[in-house]
Amino acid sequence: MNDFSPLTGPFLELLDLTQSATVDLAKTLADLRTVELPDISEALFATALAELAAAKTQYQHGHAFGAGRGLVKGLLFSRKISSDQADALTRIFQDSADRLLISVRAG
């Protein structure tokens, strides 16, 4: 398991996360670690989840959510992840998206 190297300080600073989005991202990344993905896949999903957390508008939120779902489907189709892993990742993205959408709408 890696340390989510794409999520370094400078990258996170560029995202300009709110405090609630930062808390959500930390929880979501903890959930992601339970899926036991190969390091490169884990890094891709961590980055996608960070982009979802950074969404400031409903359009950005929908785009980031769709990109994350597409990543799940693409890796499942190419057999880089199992269907159980895909189900877990879809749940993680959906749960995070649901929580974050409340903040975006209140925005």
Query: What is the end-to-end distance?
Result: 35 Å
Mean pLDDT: 86
N-to-C SSE string, H for helix and E for strand: HHHHH
Number of strands: 0
Total of helices: 5
Sheet with most strands = none
**Residue windows where pLDDT falls under 50 for at least 5 positions:** none
- Secondary-structure class: mainly alpha
Radius of gyration: 13 Å
How much helicity do the residues have?
over 70%
What proportion of the residues form beta strands (DSSP E)?
A: under 5%
| Dominant shape | globular
Offer a few descriptive terms:
globular, mainly alpha, 107 residues
Give a description of the structure.
With 107 residues, the chain is mainly alpha-helical. The chain has five helices and no strands. Helix 4 packs antiparallel against helix 5. The longest helix has 24 residues, at 83-106. The protein is globular, with a radius of gyration of 13 Å. The N and C termini lie far apart (35 Å). The model has no long low-confidence stretch (mean pLDDT 86).
